[in-house]
Amino acid sequence: MMELLQTPVDQRPQWAALAEHRARLDGVSLRRLFAENPGRASEFTLGVDGLLLDYSKNLIDAEVMGALVDLAYATGVHRRIEAMFEGERINTTEDRAAAHVALRAARDQRMVIDGENVVPRVHHVLDEMGAFATRIRSGAWLGYTGKAIKNVVNIGIGGSDLGPVMAAEALSAYSDPGLNVRFVSNVDGSDIVSALRGLDQSETLYVVVSKTFTTVETLTNARTARRLLVDALGNEDAVRRHFVAVSTNAKQVRHFGIETENMFGFWDWVGGRYSVESAVGLSLMIAIGPENFASMTDGFRAMDTHFREAPLAHNMPVLLALIGLWYNNFHDAQTHAILPYSTYLARFPAYLQQLDMESNGKSVDTEGRLVRVRTGPVVWGEPGTNGQHAFYQLLHQGTHLVPCDFIGFLRPVDGPDEHHDLLMANFFAQTEALAFGRSEEEVAAAGVRADLVPHRSFAGDRPTNTLLAGRLNPFVLGQLVALYEHKVFTQGVLWGINSFDQWGVELGKVLAHRIFDELSQDEPPAPGHDESTNSLVSMYRTAAARRVRPRPGGDRDGAAVR
Ligand SMILES: O=P(O)(O)OC[C@H]1O[C@H](O)[C@H](O)[C@@H](O)[C@@H]1O
Fold first, then answer.
1. Ligand 1 lined by 349 (C-beta under 6 Å)
2. Which residues of 490-500 are buried (b: 16+ CB within 10 A; e: fewer)?
3. What DSSP state is assigned to residue 386?
4. The complex's ipTM?
5. Which residues are marked as active site?
6. How confident is the model over 457-507, as pLDDT tens digits?
7. pLDDT per position as a tens digit, 274-287
8. Which end of the chain, C or N, has fewer beta carbons within 10 A?
9. What is the DSSP string of 259-308?
10. Which of 93, 94, 155, 160 best tests ligand 1's pocket when mutated (most atoms within 8 Å of CB)?
């Protein structure tokens, strides 16, 4: 039987209905929507296991939400959710499952992928990680010279870095203060130099994380770390006590020189950017301990269960996805800001950048056709209140519509109460100001000089979601990450794209490989690029030939660009 092609989303009647709603609501302000519906905030608020989403300050009404939910059903979001949990090969271009939800399954749950219940394997690795983390934390694991480990250095990039680094920072208040956990990702040699500054190699454990174990940045950093370790400790045998690997590729791990007894595995059905809950989170587990890690897993699982079971109209990830689509496709918004009111979540926007932009930065649908609607937005953000003193001007008075997610907590992790009151006062004030603005009449009535009135008015109608939880802890972090994972997946389904491949990162890698030879070989291949690239390569080679190494704390290398 011939398979029917999936209807492009913009050809669906539900899309046309949304366009009509967009026209109907044109010029209708949030002030009016709130005035007309005194129960609006409670109508558009949803709580899931202590995490609250207030989406009332969006340019929506009940009809819009109804039409968006209709679109979700029409595009089969409910069926795709089930397919993900059933371990189907939903990553069609790579012909594999995308079953990160299995990483969070309880010990007695079943998740079948390619005919095998993978939950026992998942828990086997989690148990191994737990035992290893406990040995490191208790001082039972000794380095080559007999000293306990005090420093853990995670070497990885992309999904093998951003998740652990984000979560380790988010949960740093839950970390063992006696352990120094650092992260090296960039191939820029300054990254490893600065990460290792002040560390004693005899007390340092390297966790080399790479799904493929072929990523050039990670292998380069790992080789450099190994050389430094062996130089410091004087024997290759030291590697066994100071290096562990996290990978799906045992062959390459062995090839690098790490025994598989020091390897923690995961599987090809875990995408890199969806992997923090797998062995990729080993450094994090060492930092916060297995119990806190398990509590984070519980948070993930709570959101997974909600995502699978709640009807789409009351499903938090689906609602975020639909509201995002509403701005992306019907309000011409090109970006989406993530604004956590927590210093500990400083890396959360960067983490979500990979999650969202690598997943949904696609222009071809699952059928191989060019998509005709805009897909994933540019995701960016910084913690509040810092951002308020930097870029919020544009959010309030600029010409771009920037939908924002404000993320905050009722109680502080630490610090004096006064700080938290001020922090959250700013959070609530910002979402209020963005939504309702300050009209010219109000500004004039406040006695502002007539010529300044336009400058000092705020149009309002700048949409925000408010995500509020009790306190930032491992459980809540798990909920938040799973929430965004599922939001991104849902949007991929709505747009008809595959959120689980990332072919777009390949071309640059291939070209870099070739240019590396041109930069570094004594007799390089003839440069065969465009005029611009050829001349940049040649300028670099000239500078490299004259390169002077900077002395520590002394001269800089001034030869490169003068
Ligand atoms: O874990 P690895 O195999 O080293 O991959 C690290 C990262 O590099 C790639 O280029 C991909 O774009 C990312 O999705 C991935 O997370």
1. no
2. bbbbbbbbbbb
3. G
4. 0.97
5. 358, 389, 509
6. 999 999 999 999 999 999 999 999 999 999 999 999 999 999 999 999 999
7. 999 999 999 999 99
8. N
9. -GGGEEE--TTS-GGG-TTSGGGHHHHHHH-HHHHHHHHHHHHHHHHHHH
10. 160
